[in-house]
Amino acid sequence: MSNFEIVKREDFSDVTYLLEVRHPLMAKAAKPGQFVIVMLNEHGERVPLTIADFDREKGTVTLVVQAVGKTTRQMQQQCKVGTSLYGLVGPMGIPTPDSHAKKVVCVGGGLGVAPVYPQARALKESGAYVIGVIGFRTKDLVFWEDKFRAICDELIICSDDGSVGLHGRVTAGIEQAIKKHPDIDEVVAIGPPIMMKSCAETTRPYKIKTMVSLNPIMVDGTGMCGGCRVKIGDQVKFACVDGPDFDGHLVDFDDLMTRLRRYTKEERMALDHWEKGCRMQKSIDNAVDAAKTK
Amino acid sequence: MREQDPAVRARNFEEVACGYHPDDAMRESERCLFCPDQPCVSGCPVGINIPGFIRKINEKDIRGAYDILTETSLLPAICGRVCPQENQCEGVCTVGQTLEAVAIGRLERFVGDTAIREGWANIPYIEPNHFKVGIVGSGPAGMACAADMAKAGCDVTVYEAFHQAGGVLKYGIPDFRLPNPVIDAEINNLRKLGVKFECNTLVGRLFTLEQMISEMGYDAVFVGVGAGYPTMLGIPGDSLNGVLSANELLTRCNLMRAKEFPNFDTPQPIGKRVAVVGAGNTAMDAMRVSLRLGAEKVYCIYRRSHKEAPARAEEIHHAEEEGVEFHWLTNPVSILDDGNGNVMGMRCVRMELGEPDASGRRRPVPVPGSEFDFECDLIVYAIGTNANPIMGQTCKLRLNKWGYIDTDENLATSMAGVFAGGDIVTGAATVIEAMGAGRRAAASMKAYLGIRDTNRPYRTAGDTLFGIDTSERNFARIRA
Ligand SMILES: Cc1cc2nc3c(=O)[nH]c(=O)nc-3n(C[C@H](O)[C@H](O)[C@H](O)COP(=O)(O)OP(=O)(O)OC[C@H]3O[C@@H](n4cnc5c(N)ncnc54)[C@H](O)[C@@H]3O)c2cc1C
Ligand SMILES: Cc1cc2nc3c(=O)[nH]c(=O)nc-3n(C[C@H](O)[C@H](O)[C@H](O)COP(=O)(O)OP(=O)(O)OC[C@H]3O[C@@H](n4cnc5c(N)ncnc54)[C@H](O)[C@@H]3O)c2cc1C
Ligand code: SF4
Ligand code: SF4
Ligand code: FES
How far is the CA of B218 from the centre of ligand 3 (A)? Predict the structure, then answer.
């Protein structure tokens, strides 16, 4: 029934990979800041992933995924060029509103590097001066440097171990940019909650508007379950329909991080269950191979 | 009707009510008086010819009964199961004045189930026309509208955001009340009428209503997106882990099959002591699902009394039998934290009933000093839902002040060619009302497109264009 064919795959490292999926209508509709929900197969979970890029001519959308748990690892194993996803729905969420910022810092931490790209590109297209700050743990994990160079007026690469670029976290990169450009009027930060939290804390004293993209656990992505609710100032918002972009200075990140831990035990179980299955399959395959060679 | 034993069924997801044996149905049909004034028919929101189909059962002509039912109802096997009959058809049945009312719903279900088993479907001869109709949302409202438009010869496509069609029937109402094969059978009947289903399609975001009309070639569109945006209580502790909406619990369990975790990937929050806030159908479903998932204790917390509880009588009765503990006139005040962001318990206050409020029900007021705490580890909110915001965010349809779609009495919206019905117009209601709205919208849509409808009187005098009745103007389409 479903035909969401994977037309390209690229592996950035042993945990990060890119999938380009054919969906002409979605490629036409997608805007920066939006996300999709993927189902790998009928038994699968609904996994939200940011649209990291889209190509209206080719009719494809690009997802960059980090293998962190059962589903994302299974996708890493099974999503090859020519295979198809069982479900792909979107684009979801409110697109990032047009910004009138003149000078912006776009910050991507680890996996957040991919989702911040379309926003950076859109800002560049709207005439802003764009400073990219992208952070990785180490040199080997760096990806999309060329893509960012092409759209950024300045690019600061940070690495935790100092193996490439600035030694330190993305917050150090932000500080550096602010020191150099006192007229920065917006920061966009995407990455793990703890990283977005520190980015928001870094810019708070300077009173620079800081937008973040939140990633709570979701089920439907259409505003029907309330599982994705987040605290923004004194209000409760549903990230899938009211976001996912919010003002980082208002977000209650501690609440978000607590809520992300809801299913830790089950996530562990799912992974163990699956890995056991994989090991069994492997030993069967090995036995079959061994029997064949005999 | 035979039912599974409460102690057994409270631990499985098999259907609770086992359905009639043909002999039971026959016996029940004999209780109908075939009243000339047919009060039951006016009690049914869609006006099913109730004595008519019961007479056919009585004559052992089940196929005939099915034919009469399907003249009006698209989903007999579903409505027979989930209609709040005691407030509708059965509530006004003449026999019910003195004895137990004729079990109209159960008879309807019997006929519907027989049809599914035998593979009956009433597919009329369809003369195709050149109209393209789009339906947004695959709940009962969308399904009913799709069926009528397909029968009228239109090329009908149903768009659904989820990966499976069915709306609340699929994601909300649990298997033990409405098994999935029943829904799938009814959806298959629609496919036989030529209706196409496109799942994984979020209308508004993938394409807008405006685009459907102006670019995608739809002559008319029906919007039946339901109203599923859950309400949270807004008390301290709302965002603790272990507090969730009934919609989330039920969607995980039913649609995502989290009850079969880890064979299915979606996890299910499991509680030992579960408190469900609310006493509607959704609350009953959440409680009974929690029992089946292995909860030791399930509490129902409701601020009014038993009498005001909006759930179907049968559901409350079933929940009681299965061991749910009801705490009427009790209102949550705050949720207690275990220090790690998880639910540890709930603080409630006792209520008493005061003066009647706007809804005519007596308003509950807190009894001062009656706060008390109790232990629980999962809290489910089933206190109502609101309009989903996506349509409002993405199209220019006029909404009312609560965010529901504004329509006229013919269910036409502010946008030419766009009709709406079901929960997104009325607010949360019932399956049969949503279905009825879908059919009413279909009738208006046919009039709009100029398709002749034999069930509808046509205006003759006055309304003409070049001497041709405008209701028959389908020789040409005029669009703004
Ligand atoms: C709007 C949005 C956009 C996202 N964009 C991307 C993206 O572009 N690339 C990407 O790799 N990931 C993205 N995520 C996160 C991604 O959805 C999760 O990593 C994924 O669901 C994990 O599934 P799993 O079964 O592999 O791991 P699990 O076993 O479910 O979980 C492993 C770890 O991931 C965390 N996690 C689980 N579910 C989610 C979730 N829905 N959101 C965030 N964290 C979760 C858990 O807390 C746990 O630490 C996004 C999430 C949201 C809500
Ligand atoms: C748990 C529960 C139990 C209930 N029990 C009963 C009962 O026993 N008896 C009874 O009579 N009634 C019951 N009801 C109420 C009844 O189910 C609803 O009134 C009825 O389903 C409304 O039908 P609908 O077609 O308007 O919307 P829905 O059934 O809500 O269907 C709407 C569909 O539209 C889809 N959708 C939404 N937005 C979009 C979009 N932008 N693009 C594409 N698709 C979209 C949704 O995913 C959904 O599938 C219950 C409701 C719930 C939640
Ligand atoms: S559709 Fe519902 S109200 Fe109408 S006759 Fe059937 S059970 Fe009764
Ligand atoms: S009111 Fe009751 S007894 Fe009379 S026709 Fe209807 S179902 Fe039969
Ligand atoms: S994911 Fe269900 S409401 Fe946002």
Answer: 33
φ/ψ (deg, to 5) at B395:
-140, 170
The number of C-beta contacts closer than 8 angstroms across A and B is 127
Rg (alpha carbons) of chain B, rounded to whole number: 24
Place of tokens 């309807």: B108
Place of tokens 């705050």: B334
Residue A39 pairs with which residues in a beta bridge? A87
SS3 B76: helix
d(CA A169, CA A160): 6
* Out of A11-25, A143-157, B276-290, B352-366, least confident range: B352-366
What pTM did the predictor assign?
A: 0.87
Cβ–Cβ gap B241/A238 under 8 Å:
no
What pLDDT shows up at residue A23?
A: 93
Q: Are B51 and B38 in contact (CB under 8 A)?
A: yes
Q: Give the ligand with the smallest distance to the CA of A217.
A: 1
- B473 pLDDT band, cuts 50/70/90, is very low
Distances (CA, A) of B444 to B208, B324, B449, B453, B471: 22, 45, 9, 10, 11
- Residue in the block written with tokens 């950035």: A12
Block residue for tokens 């035998």 = B118
**Interface-testing mutation among B136, B138, B160, B163, with chain A (most A C-beta atoms within 10 A):** B163
Is the predicted ipTM greater than 0.90, yes or no? no
Domains and CATH numbers, chain B: 6-118 (1.10.1060.10), 132-228+387-449 (3.50.50.60), 233-384 (3.50.50.60)
- Whether the per-residue pLDDT at B453 is higher than 80: the answer is no
- pLDDT of B160 > 50? The answer is yes
Locate B317 and state its tokens: 């009765």
Q: Between B244, B252, B262, which is nearest A269 by CB?
A: B262
The yes-or-no verdict on residue A92 having pLDDT over 90 is yes
A61 three-state secondary structure: strand
For chain A, the residue count is: 294
Structure confidence at residue B122 (pLDDT) = 78
DSSP B380-426: EE-S-EE--SHHHHHS---B-TTSPBP--TT-B-SSTTEEE-SHHHH
End-to-end Cα, chain B, rounded Å: 56
A246-288: pLDDT as tens digits = 998 999 998 898 888 887 777 777 788 778 877 777 777 777 7
Cα(B141)–Cα(B226) distance, rounded to whole angstroms?
A: 8
Helix (H) or strand (E) holding A73: helix A70-78
Write the single-letter amino acid at B84: P
Compute the distance from residue B392 Cα to the ligand 1 centre, in Å.
Answer: 28
Local structure of B208: helix, strand or coil: coil
Q: How many CA atoms lie within 13 A of B308 on its CB side?
A: 17
Q: Are B235 and B194 spatial neighbours (Cβ–Cβ below 8 Å)? A: no
With 50 as the cut, is the pLDDT of residue B474 above it? no
Residues 6+ apart with CB under 8 A from B23: none
pLDDT given at position A293: 66
Taking alpha carbons only, the member of A211, A177, A16, A239 closest to residue A99 is A211
Model confidence pLDDT, tens digit, residues B395-451: 888 888 888 988 888 888 888 889 999 999 888 888 888 988 998 999 889 888 888
Min CA distance, A275 vs chain B (Å)? 12
Helix (H) or strand (E) holding B52: helix B50-58
